[in-house]
């Protein structure tokens, strides 16, 4: 769920969420549950309070991150100068790894994202940060709450990062 929320929050346009997404509520595949007068449409306050607070916290912090970074709220489509793709071999149909940098031409607050859908870890080579900046890890969905998201970022050391299976990372360039 956290990986999908990261993808949603960095995508262009208006993010669309359903009630209960913030704690992992399921409608069991029913995409038109509005006609059901059952628990499928009820907000489960107990689930939020008892066992899903970390999930709720992650969703809330990602929404704040999006709000605080105008680069994620563009009013035009990305051009080739706005994004750099980091893929070693685009012809590899078996690849389940995607990494890219969204460039902030105004303040240099670039954002690097990587998604690993493999069932094994991937050692990603992190591109150099913009001049006078360094990378801070904001999100690693493999980490347990509250370490999965650090709104101010944790300084990244080195030029690589081991991305766990079925997880994603988000790095932010900071002074």
TrEMBL record:
Pfam families (alphabetical): ISOA1-3_C (PF21156)
GO biological process: polysaccharide catabolic process
Superkingdom of the organism of origin: Eukaryota
Domain Isoamylase 1-3-like C-terminal: start-end pairs: 89-150
InterPro entries found in the cross-reference section: GH, Glyco_hydro_b, ISOA1-3-like_C
Xref: Gene3D superfamilies: Glycosidases, Golgi alpha-mannosidase II
UniProt xrefs under PANTHER family: GLYCOGEN DEBRANCHING ENZYME
Name of the featured protein: Isoamylase 1-3-like C-terminal domain-containing protein
